Amino acid sequence: MSFYVATSIAYVNAEPHIGYALELVQADVLARHRRLRGEQVRFQTGTDDNAFKNVTAARAAGVDVHEFVKGNAARFAALREPLELSYDDFVSTSSDPRHLAGVEKLWRASAAKGDFYRKSYTGYYCSGCEAFVTEPYCPEHGTKAEIVTEENWFFRLSKYADQILHALEHEIRIEPEARRNEVLSFVRSGLSDISVSRPAARSNGWGIPVPDDPSQVIYVWWDALANYITTLRESTQGDSFDQWWRDGEQVHVIGKGIIRFHAVYWPALLLSAGLPLPKTIFVHEYLTSHGAKISKSSGVRVSPVDLIDKYGVDAVRWWLLREPAKLGDTDFTEERLIDRHDSDLANGVGNLFNRVRGLAGGSIPEGPAIELTSTVDAALRDFDFRAATAAIVAAVDETNRLIETTRPWELSGTEREEVLARLGGACRTIAHELSPFLPSGADRALNAARAFPRLATL
To answer: Which range of residues forms the domain containing residue 409?
Structure first.
């Protein structure tokens, strides 16, 4: 079976921060891990260009919106090299011709079902969410919503309430369980129809026009959600919709603030269009800095590129995978990053490989593998990156204990060779399982001949 993993696509109203790097690295590990197991893998990410907040940010910067979006989208695409990402496709929704054609096709399919109608509406609107909210204050951003009156196209979400509930109970997996329960509670409380367009005049025409109604543009979240299949249905590169979506396994990796869009609205749009539903949605928590959410909208930002320039990609990727909890936000500090690198990588993996290399005369010996693969597989099936990395650390500790108990420097002949082979096999297994987490670092662990200074990369 093929495996298709996709992140949410990022607003480009500001430069990328470490919170979004978390999502990219998590998805990258899932993709690399499946490739390591011999599976066919497709990893997609990209940028959400058509948001009204991008128009607002461009105006504030005194820059043409096209140039503003193009420049910031390039900054997100440029994370590939410093973060060692292995994505196969990067979609920019304002410029990718596959996306425009695919969104129009999806809209027309729902329109043919009679699932759109036009009406006037007054409600609380959050500019951060780019959506109407039910309360005067947005719970996601903690900001006061503005009262907006518009005439928009609405989608008959209520029509699909029973089908969505059945899908969530029996077909779509949501991890962790607490997030699944949250979505189920929301659906069981009743679904109302939702606005799916906005007046084009409000954004100076920025966005994808509603087919046959140029006075309206498609709401950015509707347009953005479609990216997961527009790149497949409109592909000229041989990507198969049947292979990657209809028949394969898909995983959406998203932040908790957009779970309703992915677990409720997105399945409804697919049901309306007569298309298969996604299989799995993994929801990660937020990173904070001194207790405040790291985000573009909050102004609390930590640059992943600056951290990599200062500490190296191994230190940054490892912290993002080793520290954040599966439930509950995690506070980031540089001190925690340094401590985790030094304890697990420099004094753990690095020290072990150099000890074994020294005992073996300069290279890592061949030897039998240790049992680690099934533990890592099980952890990643549960999207528990902390448990997966902990298993690798435990294997390092166990191998170090083997050195202390066997004392190979006191052995000779066959007995010594057998112990060194066991140590070499353990190191090679560790490097193999480490490679999805630290792609180049795992290779360096096997090949480097130098000691590991503080915060050196593997």
So the answer is: 334-447
Domain assignment present for residue 294? The answer is no
CB 196 within 8 A of CB 62: no
Contact in structure between 175 and 382 (CB atoms under 8 Å): yes
| Whole-prediction pTM | 0.91
pLDDT in tens, 344-383: 999 999 999 999 999 999 889 999 999 999 999 999 999 9
Q: Which long-range contacts (CB under 8 A, 24 or more apart) does 276-279 make?
A: 276/245, 276/246, 277/167, 277/171, 277/172, 278/172, 278/228, 278/250, 278/252, 279/171, 279/172, 279/173, 279/249, 279/250, 279/251
Both 19 and 115 in a single domain? yes
Judged by DSSP in three states, 119 sits in: strand
Q: Render 169-194 in DSSP notation, one character per residue.
A: HHT-EEESHHHHHHHHHHHHT----E
Q: How confident is the model at residue 25 (pLDDT cuts 50, 70, 90)?
A: very high
Q: Rounded to 10 degrees, what is the CA torsion of 445, 447, 451, 455?
A: -40
- Return the structure tokens found at 115: 């699932």
- Residue 397 falls within a domain, yes or no? yes
CA-based radius of gyration for the chain: 24
Q: Residue 441 domain-assigned?
A: yes
**Euclidean distance between CA atoms 173 and 282, whole angstroms:** 8
Nearest 5°: CA angle at 423, between 422 and 424?
Answer: 90
Query: How many CB atoms lie under 10 A from the CB of residue 358?
Result: 12
**CA distances to 142, 357, 428 from 422, in Å:** 56, 13, 10
The per-residue pLDDT for range 334-343, each reduced to its tens digit, is: 999 999 999 9
CA distance linking residue 350 with residue 442, whole number of Å? 10
* Angle (deg, nearest 10), helices 351-359 and 413-434: 150
Query: Residues 85, 197: one domain?
Result: yes
Buried (b) or exposed (e) across 305-331, using 16+ Cβ within 10 A?
Answer: bebbeebbbbbbbbbbbbbbebeebbe
Residues 95 and 228 in one domain: yes
> Residue type for 64, please?
D
Tally Cβ neighbours within 10 Å of residue 429: 20
User: Which tokens is 404 given?
Assistant: 């202390």
Together in a domain, 19 and 84: yes
Looking at the structure, do residues 272 and 376 belong to the same domain, yes or no? Answer: no
Contact (Cβ atoms closer than 8 angstroms) between residue 97 and residue 235: no
CATH of the domain at 132: 3.40.50.620
Indicate which CATH number applies to the domain containing 366: 1.10.730.10
**pLDDT band at 454; cut points 50, 70, 90:** very low
- Angstrom distance (rounded) from CA 368 to CA 365: 10
